[in-house]
Amino acid sequence: MGQFHYHALNVKVEKRYSNGLNFLMNYTWSKFLDDVEAGNEVAGGEGNGYTHISLRNLDKSYSGNDLRHRVIASSVYELPIGKGRSVNVDNAVANAIAGAGHWA
């Protein structure tokens, strides 16, 4: 069993509905340090290296799972169809399917 250190900065930007558009972006900067190589690391560690238990601190380095920069973005567009919108639908079933989401 080894030791690890994880440091991160997380930034979230969100623009909520403006004419039916929603945008979300998340950025993560991180640094992941450890002193043990695992077999299931993203960078393809073998996990079979020898480490003397008393000298493990000499093996401290970037982990094979260290992902320095990660950006995730998504958006949703709400269609202007349904009761009270640009394209009005009077049928309750068609209104629920098309966009308003309720049976009014």
Topology diagram in text:
Blueprint lengths: L3 E12 L5 E14 L26 E2 L6 E9 L14 H7 L6
Antiparallel strand pairs: 1-2, 2-3, 2-4
Low-confidence stretches: none
How large is the count of helical segments?
A: 1
- Into which percent range does the helicity of residues fall? under 10%
Terminal Cα span: 59 Å
**Total domains, how many?**
1
List how many beta strands DSSP finds: 4
Shape: rod-shaped
Helix vs. strand class: mainly beta
The main pleated sheet reads as: 4 strands, antiparallel
Query: Per DSSP, what share of the residues sits in E-state strands of 2 or more residues?
Result: 35-45%
Radius of gyration: 25 Å
What oligomeric assembly is this protein in?
Answer: single chain
Note the run of SSEs as H and E: EEEEH
Mean pLDDT: 80
Which characteristics define this entry?
104 residues, mainly beta, four-stranded antiparallel beta sheet
Descriptive overview:
The chain is mainly beta. The protein has one domain (4-79). 7% of the residues lie in helices and 36% in strands. The protein is built from 1 helix and 4 strands, in the order E-E-E-E-H. Strands 1, 2, 3 and 4 form a 4-stranded antiparallel sheet that branches. It is rod-shaped, with a radius of gyration of 25 Å. The N and C termini lie far apart (59 Å).
